[in-house]
Amino acid sequence: MQIATWNVNSIRSRLDQAIAWLQSRPYIDILCLQETKVSDADFPLTAFTELGHFVYIYGQKSYNGVALIARQELTSIRTGFSSLLTDVAPELESQKRLISGVIADVRVINIYVPNGSAIASEKYEYKLKWLALLKSYLQEALKQEKNILICGDINIALEDIDIHDPSDRATKVMASDIERAALQEILDLGFKDVFRKFQSDDGYYSWWDYRAGSFRRNHGWRIDHHYLTADLYDRALSCEIDISPRKNPQPSDHTPVIVEL
DNA sequence: ATGGCTTCAGAATGAAGA
């Protein structure tokens, strides 16, 4: 089984690239998309369904938005925190950042974690609240299902080796101690970063800023992840960052990450 | 570098991303 995650930075702008990439990767069972940036009514469904894929979407106009593109029909689709939690604050439910479904014996939870803008900003506080709520959500999910795969644009680099230049990382969003601690609390529920099962070196990234020739110079960050519960982690056969789509004309600033179970 | 690009929405001396 292969699961991929890719922040496409607008599915309508990246539609041809997403289709071409899926066609070049016929064994991907689920492609988890983030930042689709489109309302459900305007999602380009037919491009995928014509290829025989099943499409599950949870989007909004302009910002955010997540989707599952699956080779087989998925079961038990859930969207938003309210699918498992009660009394979710409206501001944490209104941004469409979470969709999940079940394939075989695995629940795949696709998330787009808020960026946070800048440390101590209102958006940073929102990110921390969102992560705390995600922890509660995952505690509920783990009561029901043992095998869970979380993937997506996590917008946090947990280790210095995940950043091309960590020298001032403590002052930057995505690598501050508080964000790392919030993510570590989630991992401590029983999840492991499967990329590090296979690769312990630095220099492997999933996002490069559009500006300043960052990709050409490999000035990137590893912020797109697959986090697996114990049995899935043991079962994992590979985890690959495919940098080829980042080389396309008019690329997303993120590139896909694929795990094989 | 207070920014370098890119997207969306809608007409900004913009907002947001990361």
Explain this structure:
The protein is an alpha+beta fold. It has 7 helices and 14 strands. The strands form 3 sheets. A 6-stranded mixed β-sheet has the order 3-4-2-1-14-13. A 6-stranded mixed β-sheet has the order 5-6-7-8-12-9. Helix 4 packs parallel to helix 5. It is globular. The mean pLDDT is 97. The chain binds one DNA strand of 18 nucleotides through loops.
Secondary-structure blueprint:
Blueprint: E1 2-7, H1 15-24, E2 30-34, H2 45-49, E3 54-58, E4 66-70, E5 75-79, H3 90-93, E6 98-103, E7 106-112, H4 122-144, E8 148-153, H5 177-187, E9 192-193, H6 195-198, E10 207-208, E11 220-221, E12 224-228, H7 230-235, E13 238-241, E14 257-260
Parallel strand pairs: 1-2, 7-8
Antiparallel strand pairs: 1-14, 2-4, 3-4, 5-6, 6-7, 8-12, 9-12, 10-11, 13-14
Helix pairs in contact: 4-5
The chain binds one DNA strand of 18 nucleotides through loops.
